[in-house]
Amino acid sequence: MKLRMRNLFMIAALLLLSSGCSTKTPPANEPVKEESSGQETDIKSETDENDEKEPGGNDGPDLSENDGPELSSAQETAQNHQDYEEEGREVALVTDVSYVMDHGFNEAAFQGIQKYADAAGISYSSYSTDVDTAESYQDTILAAIHNNAELVVCVGPHFEQAVGSLQNDYSDTYFLLLDGVPRDSLGEAADVEPNVHCVTYREEEAGYLVGYMSVLEGYKRFGFIGGEQLASVERYGYGYLRGIDDAAAFLGIEDEVQAEYWYADTFLPDSRIEEISKEWYEAGTEVIFACGGSLYESVLSSAEVFDGKIIGVDVDQSDISELILTSAMKGIDASIIVALDEFFANGRRWPEELAGQVGSYGAKEKCISLPVQDNAWRFKNATTSQYLQILARLRSGDIEIPVDALPETSVTVIYHNQQEERDS
User: Fold this and answer.
1) What is the torsional sign of CA 269, 272, 276, 279?
2) Could you read off the pLDDT of 109-152 as tens digits, one per residue?
3) Cα 106–Cα 110–Cα 115 angle in degrees, nearest 5
4) What global pTM score does this model have?
5) DSSP sequence for 70-85
6) CB distance 340 to 400 below 8 Å
7) Cα radius of gyration (the chain)
């Protein structure tokens, strides 16, 4: 793989410092073009943006001169709420209604782009969707395209239908879809076109690790609060239950262990989440896996009242609170660095082995882990040696975690979503 020599060692260092996520190296191709500006965006809160740039003002680009369909009102809203309004950005990150710097998935995605782009001299920007609708997700991508983005990085399954709809109409634009695959208007999986590459993760392995280690630590009462009932969230939850069950069986305490399981239908803080988590903690739940976006804020409010523990998700969230026991991590930033490197090293297009393909990253690819730094390792009884043994078994395939249905468990699981109400 050819890279500009001045960036080669910087990119290698970034990949080593990241949490892993390796992929096959594409055949040698033309080097990255030299015309990138290397400009950097400033991430602002929506409040700061609105103070500085009024909708309809002259600070933003004139989209009327670009090719493509006329912008709808939702698209104009998305344009006014983007984090940086300047044409010509080579890479654009588009996120859902959560804020970019969310201490979770969105922030990790942005950091992956930032690390690579700053080292390679690539310009980048970010856009946040204004409302949680299919039209808004599509319009947010279109705003990036009309601002001349060459590669649009779409964060999360909310963008599946939008990418499915736009991949053919905008065949000269490239897409990196994280945590999802293109879908049609009915929600059915669509063909992945050559201008699209998808990255998915084996979240069940990360869920397994946090569940297993928490039982080894000595906890027996667990909770799982997932955001929306999407495949990635389900995989986290199913792995979590399997890890709890396997560890309980290993210790011979199946009859003593119980888990509550519920989807909140939102990734945002919500009074209902706070109410449910308070009920669980008050009834004896010791640890809740807060799985999705910023909903952890509501769980944390409850945990602070009852001195409960929380399991973070996607990234190391230990800096948020001392009550974060551990975090189920997947190498979001590292996988983005790898993908961007493949794209730009191949002449600003996906190499053959990535074009139209869905990559799945897990423990085997060194893309699933728990935080082990001294300030993040909060286990007092469970050891890093035990963790590494379980991680090695996941990497080797010795532990397999089915995700096509709710797991059968020996421990008691109470499902609170009506479509899943049954006790194991």
Assistant:
1) positive
2) 999 999 999 999 999 999 988 888 989 999 999 999 999 999 99
3) 150
4) 0.81
5) PPPHHHHHHHHT-S--
6) no
7) 22
